[in-house]
Write a structure and sequence with these properties.
Layout lengths: L3 E6 L15 E2 L2 E2 H9 L5 E5 L12 E3 L7 H12 L4 E6 L7 H9 L6 E6 L2 E2 L3 E5 L3 H9 L14 E4 L1 H7 L12 H16 L1
Parallel strand pairs: 1-4, 1-6, 4-5, 7-10
Antiparallel strand pairs: 2-3, 6-9, 7-8, 7-9
Length: 200
């Protein structure tokens, strides 16, 4: 399997949730701690992209600031790719508590010969649960320079491998990998699911 870096984007404002989602406590551990620990099973190079490094300096991860502040997730991906030690890089959000390691390993196996490996679920892409090669740096840089912020807008310039829903279903039929916490209702649902997982 390819050696990859893992990049966690922790720059969201969490405005709808009303608190910093990275530090939501689930079963005695913050979301960001759970995600970072899980990613160390895939990669020796775990990067957290944040402009508040003092919040994360207790974690076993490299902390990287935004090269282009205020440019959203696309800017975070660019900053993480620039800092990464490896050609291929897994990018996830800081509020995805149910990442499936087997699905991620499958995506890593698909990486050779492509620049983006991205799931497509219900016709929608999951750009914050995807692999990006360093070949994406120049197209992203151009897009940011033009003022673009939509991640998929540079895909026409790179080699993309879509992971179809039927492939995802082999590993994660409920698609919990893509569950994220944006609202208080999401938070309550996540806690319920986490309690069920702990009991099982």
């Amino acid at each position: 399997m390819l050696t990859i870096s893992s990049i966690v984007l922790a720059g969201g404002q969490s405005s709808r949730l009303g608190m910093d989602k990275s530090f939501v406590n689930v079963n005695g551990q913050s979301l960001i701690e759970q995600i970072a620990a899980k990613l160390t099973r895939l990669s020796d190079d775990v990067i957290i992209v944040t402009n508040s490094p003092e919040k994360y300096d207790h974690l076993e991860a490299r902390l990287v600031g935004d090269i282009y502040p205020g440019k959203g997730a696309l800017g975070g991906i660019y900053s993480g790719l620039r800092a990464a030690a490896n050609t291929y890089n897994l990018v996830v959000a800081c509020d995805m508590p149910f990442l499936d390691l087997n699905l991620l390993r499958y995506m890593i196996l698909l990486a050779r010969g492509h620049d983006v490996i991205i799931p497509k679920i219900g016709g929608f892409l999951e750009p914050l649960h995807a692999l990006y090669s360093k070949s994406c740096l120049e197209p992203i840089d151009r897009l940011l320079a033009w003022g673009g912020l939509k991640i998929v807008d540079f895909f026409s310039e790179v080699r993309v491998r879509y992971v179809e829903e039927k492939e995802v279903d082999i590993f994660d039929p409920q698609h919990l990998s893509f569950f994220n916490v944006n609202t208080p209702n999401d938070l309550e649902e996540m806690k319920k699911m986490a309690r069920r997982d702990k009991r099982s």
